[in-house]
Amino acid sequence: MKILGFESSCDETSAAVLEFDDNGKITVLSNIVASQIDIHARFGGVVPEIASRAHTEAISKITYEALETANAAIGDIDAVAVTASPGLIGALLVGVNFAKSLAYANKKPLIAVNHIKGHIAANYIDHPELKPPFLALVASGGHTSLIKADTYRDMTTIGATRDDALGEAFDKVARVLGMPYPGGAAMDKLAYEGKPNIKFPSAAIKDDTLDFSFSGIKTAVLNHINSCSQKGGELPRADIAASFVEAAVSSVVIKMNEALDKYPDVHRVVLAGGVAANSHLRAALENLCKNRGVQLYMPALKYCGDNAAMIASAAYFEYKAGAFSDVSLNASAVAEV
Ligand code: KG4
Ligand code: ZN
Question: Against a cut of 0.85, is the pTM above it?
Answer without folding.
Answer: yes
